[in-house]
Amino acid sequence: MNTTILLGMLGLGGQEIFLILLIVLLLFGGAKIPKLMKGLGQGINEFKKGMKGEDVDTKAKENIESK
What was the pLDDT predicted at 42? Predict the structure, then answer.
């Protein structure tokens, strides 16, 4: 889905997005934002794997047993 369409559906323009990003920067500080984004990305990846039916725990157990 195109991000422009998604933001249009949410009613967010450039000023609103800038304000949200500024508030996030003020709340968390510049040093923590990369860590937050990494955690968010990992969560999204695990969610996608769960939707595909891949069992993350089974793969982890297989990796531990093979070592």
Answer: 92
